Amino acid sequence: MKSRTQHLREASHSWPQPDKQGDTAACLFCDTIHDLVDIQEGEAAYCKRCGNIIYQNRRASLVRATCFSISALIFMLVVQFLPFLTLNAAGLQRELTLINTTTSLMRTDAPILGASVLVFTILAPFFLICGMLYSTTPLLAGRCAPGAEYVVKWVYRAEPWNMVEVFLLGVLVSILKLAQVADVHINAGFWAYAGAMLCTAAAIAGIDRRELWDRLELANES
Amino acid sequence: MNPDHQKPIFKKAADRGLAGCRTCGLMSPMAKQSKCPRCHSRLYYRKPDSVENTLALVAGSIALFIPSHLLPMITVTEFGVAVDKTIIAGMTAFWLEGAYPIALVIFCASILIPILKVGALLWLCAAAKGLIHPSPGMLTKIYHITELLGRWSMIDIFVVGILVSLVQFGNYTSIVPGPGALAFGTVVMLTMFAAMNFDPRLLWDRLDDCNRRAHIGKFAKTFFSPKSK
Which residues of A touch B165 (CB under 8 A)? Predict the structure, then answer.
């Protein structure tokens, strides 16, 4: 008779996979073809030739991706209303919020730069978080949200354009730049944005691409 | 069959007529359809015209890199007197004031990383075209680093945005972005697109070509040289 733990371990051997899917996988970096193997939670399958990860089985992947996207969304919503920096100079006070960076660039005849900053710091992170949430939450109940395939496809394409961490370093550099001429303080917005960065990274890394697609396909069939 | 040939032979998906989807990982026979049945992305064995596209984007970024450092990044107006500041001027100011770490961060993000990135992409393209020996193990690592570091150059643009929005004290002091900022932002985006267009699988293809040639050469030597038994 099998004990309960054994049973659980077997159940978590791999994520549910559609039957008609081929039994091979190719490495994205060297195109070497591999037979699919079942891997346990927390393990990863590496390419025999170049050593890059082909796919990995994340622990509690769906729940993690959903929860971290929810917290990232809360952080991102909060960030919109909190100041990043407060600057005091000669009796004047100014505050920096996230959207200020975009609007002031737009106002000072740099609309292209303003638009790209808007995309990199607000739109791309929001799209990543909302897209993950939209596709993973119904999957918890075994359902596929309408159009989730397209959303997930564009989430992975938008990933490199999410520059939250770069903006945070930019804030630190400008503090050092301004510290000589004015009194600058870091405010709550900075920390909330840092939280959004960590939670977005955890949500995207929380579920393997292949697992997400397999689950979407299964949910679509049923 | 060939005891000399100790390395295992790796089969490629493309040799079996299969294309792995870049978006969802599903393997599909290339002959039947040109779109992935699962995620509807375009399917291909190797990214079409990958080296040519990468080289074109790299050429564009080299062309814009020079004006991005010659043109002013920001214009600071203090009591009606406007002073143009380039990236290098801002960096040297930090260095002369003794703020070495910050000067180094700016130097890395705005000068070193773009140059290294362009150099790395040119090297990768030369290897993918077979002009130099491909050492895919090392070059794949270089490709990873190139993809990872590219985005950090954007820091300059964000700093300009933050300074412009914070330092607006009417007639006392104000900062306005200059044309150098736009040029620099375009350099960063072009190099990011260039790195995305490069297909690292080409490096392994060239290595296989080399191995095949070496193998045929060895084969020919053992059979046709007079010294062989």
Answer: 96, 100-101, 103-105
In this structure, the answer to whether residues B115 and B210 fall within a common structural domain is: yes
What ipTM was estimated for this complex? 0.86
- Burial of A90 (C-beta count, 10 Å sphere; 0-12/13-18/19+): exposed
The winner for highest mean pLDDT among A99-108, A196-205, B33-42 is A196-205
- Environment class of B81 (CB within 10 Å of its CB; exposed 0-12, middle 13-18, buried 19+): exposed
Give pTM, 2 decimals.
Answer: 0.86
Full domain range(s) for residue B169:
49-214
DSSP per-residue letters across A190-208:
HHHHHHHHHHHHHHHHHS-
- State mean pLDDT over B44-68: 92
pLDDT at res. A22: 67
Q: Do B163 and A170 touch (CB under 8 A)?
A: no
Number of structural domains chain B divides into: 2
Q: Could A160 and B159 be called an inter-chain contact, meaning their C-beta atoms sit closer than 8 Å? A: no
B33 and B140 belong to one structural domain: no
Q: Please provide residue B166's backbone torsions phi and psi, each rounded to the nearest 5 degrees.
A: -85, -40
- Assess whether B16 and B123 both reside in one domain: no
Report the pLDDT value the prediction gives residue A144, as an integer from 0 to 100.
86
Among all chains, which residue has been given the structure tokens 């796919």?
A: A55
- The least confident of A17-31, A79-93, B150-164, B214-228 is B214-228
In a domain, B35, yes or no: yes
In a domain, B118, yes or no: yes
The residue of chain A with its CA nearest to that of B205 is A30
Q: Which residues pair with B82 in a beta bridge?
A: B77
In this structure, are B101 and B193 located in the same domain?
Answer: yes
Is A116–B140 a contact, with Cβ atoms under 8 angstroms apart?
no
Domain ranges of chain A: 4-56, 61-221
